[in-house]
Amino acid sequence: MRDHHEEARLDALYQLKLLDTPASEGFDRITRMASQIFGLPVAAVSLTDRDRQWFKSRVGVEHRSIPRDKAPCAQVAESTQPLVIEDFQADACYADSVLGRAGTRFYAGAPLVTSDGYGLGSLCVLGTEPRKATEAELAALVDLAAMVMAQIELQHAFGRIDPVTGMPTRNQFRDDLMDLERDHPGEHRFAVVVDMAREDQISRITRALGVARVDDFIREASQALRVALGPGRVAYQVGSAQFAFISPPGVEELAYVSLLRSSFETMHATSSVRFVTNVAIGVRSFVIGSVSADDVLRGAASAAQDARNADGAIALHSPANDIAHRRQYGLLQDFGAALEAGDQLRLVYQPRIELATGRCLGAEALLRWRHPRLGEVSPAEFIPIIEETSLARATTQWVIDAAMDQMAAWNLAGIAPVLSVNISAANLGEADLIDRIQLALSKRDLRPERLEIELTESAIMDQPDQALAMLRELAEAGICLAIDDFGTGHSSLAYLQRLPARIVKIDQAFMRNLTEAAGPDFVLVETMIGLAHKLGYRVVAEGIETAEAAAILTQLGCEEAQGFWFARPMEATLFATWLVEREPEAEPERG
After folding, report:
1. How far apart are CA 176 and CA 11, in angstroms?
2. Which of 162, 490, 527, 560 lies in disulfide reach of 237, CB 3.0 to 4.6 Å?
3. Which pLDDT tens digit goes with each residue over 417-467?
4. Do the beta carbons of residue 282 and residue 193 sit within 8 Å?
């Protein structure tokens, strides 16, 4: 029974992650107060380990620890009661102890006790002369010991131990890696991040079974991880369903990755939620001391995300992917400033041509970003990032306002093309989007039929009911609707029939090999044009780069096209000039 209690006491001590940590002014201040109250040269916050007394804080002593055997602080920890030794030489037990032989004659210690009743050690004072402890001194020592425990609990509460799993957290991972830098600089290790489930999987479990079931799952996973790592190894909880650990020294990469894969396959096979979650593991190789703790953890977490995105169980950290992720994050950070800067974002305009007559019927407004440091950033790079964040709303509003300002300016110049503007799937959740569009039109005295809203087929099918309701409202407001990137989504014919759109735009991916008459792209485009016409849509082909492709589309009955063969996207003034100069040339073809 006593052995069991001692193991539980040691476990409570180890869970706090205090042993062998650097000195802290919060503890040192209390230790100095104890020394001053007793007027003694030596005081310490002493923690009772398995075979030593380790000093978290000390005054008047150089060494960091002494053997536990015959150490009075061990008695205080075991009994959880204050102890006073008035004269070591008169005490049969302690006269021959390490402290006794070093000249200590007086000792007073007050216990450091957890809320569960486990003694961690003591706050003690020592002197080289025999003496008594007054009642007031002893009471003050007990109060100071309570302050030490409050400091420990405060440190524990501020992100050191996860309350659900009892595992050390990201903050402790950072501190422990700093300790490794001090003790094992230059050593090669692997950092491993284990992502137990995607956010949507956690959300699904929460909605179906409640937060308590999620806690049970995380707790179960943490216990399985502890067992898999074995004794003496530490795992950390670094996210809601993410764990991390450091490899032992001297392991070889391929063998270690193989071991991780087999271990976690076994863990997942026994998980109670294995059918609704999947594990992704990221591994980062690093040399201790050459990379910051935050960067080590970030790199391993990034590799875990790579594993998840690739539907693989495990992935090694890729410096190239890491650079790309960091660039994406940097662009996201900078884009908010770009929206407010006034001189970084602009719209360019790509004409849409009626194939039968050669007339320009309108243009598509395309967002461009000239970064002050990076120069022109491709919209293919920054738009997908923006669409996944809260900046999607502000970006769409910027585009709508800029596009309508340009339409109003063209009106004054006697130019009136239909202008097409893209919105994203993220905008479908904005209840006031249609009101904002109508207000923007009204403020500039623009007719709604001059505006065309484009939404990709994939975005529509991501939220079909929401999309259908919004598209119906836009159509009722007199705004033309277009389904962009047609053929790349997974919409059903029954659903397409319900959409109040007037136009489908066939994605440019189908135009690359269109000139091969017997090729699959030709057959697909021919089929899509026929299908769109039967559903009542007007067809626009994107990405036309040759006269031959334009001719084939005309023969297939495609009404409009856009692409480099006709014109590249142009600045507003160039587009206006191009339009004025082109119209007379196209006039004879109308009759």
Report:
1. 18
2. 162
3. 999 999 988 888 888 999 999 999 999 999 999 999 998 877 777 777 778
4. yes
Please tell me the CATH code under which domain 2-157 is placed: 3.30.450.40
CATH second-level architecture of 336-590?
Alpha-Beta Barrel (3.20)
Strand partners, 59: 43
Measure the CA–CA gap between 502 and 535, rounded to whole angstroms.
10
Every domain range in the chain assigned CATH 3.30.450.40: 2-157
pLDDT in tens, 294-316: 889 999 998 988 888 776 688 88
Q: What is the dihedral of CA 367, 372, 378, 383, to 10 degrees?
A: -60
Spatial contact of 485 and 494, defined as CB atoms under 8 Å apart: no
Return the CATH architecture of domain 170-317: 2-Layer Sandwich (3.30)
Query: Considering only CA atoms, which of 320, 190, 318 is closest in space to residue 255?
Result: 190
> What contacts 504, CB < 8 A, 6 or more positions away?
482, 483, 486, 528, 532, 537, 538, 539, 540
* pLDDT per residue as tens digits for the range 28-79: 999 999 999 999 999 999 999 999 999 999 999 989 999 999 999 999 999 9
* Phi/psi of residue 192, nearest 5 degrees: -125, 130
User: How far, in Å, CA of 268 to CA of 248, rounded?
Assistant: 23
Q: How far is it, in rounded angstroms, from Cα 124 to Cα 109?
A: 4
Backbone angles phi, psi at 68, to 5 degrees: -70, -30
Beta bridge partners of 350: 364
Q: Hey, what are 121's tokens?
A: 């050690």
Helix, strand, or coil (residue 455): strand
